[in-house]
Amino acid sequence: MCELNRLWIDDCLGKNAETVLIAASIKLIRKMDENVVAIQSFADGRLGCGTIYKAANFKYYGFHYTRFLRNRRTGEFTHEQILTNTTSPSGYVRSNVAFLLGDLEVFVVKTYRYIYPLCKHFQFKTKEKPYPEYDKGMEQIEWERDRRKIKANIISLLDKLVA
Asked: What is this structure's pTM?
């Protein structure tokens, strides 16, 4: 399975621009790798629930909650992963310093999963669900984290970054 991600189309491109691009992507994926049995994509609940995937005949497999953080000063949104994954040390340090300083507001958002099977025999681990009712938005929450552990990780990463 592969993932189709980061699709955003300005409305000025007109009707069906998204489905035209999705259809072209599916065609290319089929041509490039015959071993791909399905294409997965996620819809960001801040913007909607993935109506375009319904229009493109993707199957719906439910949602999970994801944390996003908004910088109070810049308005920039960040996915929670940069705050928990140290594989990008400078990103981890920057974002967690902002978190510790109280610069970030935390929101929970629904992330909707859609899958387009390329193979008749494809079965996902969970059952297909009815398409969701239209919904979008985010809910501000408190994110309880171990501040001592964050500080220790930052110090350790800083030692490696500026050694």
From this structure: 0.84
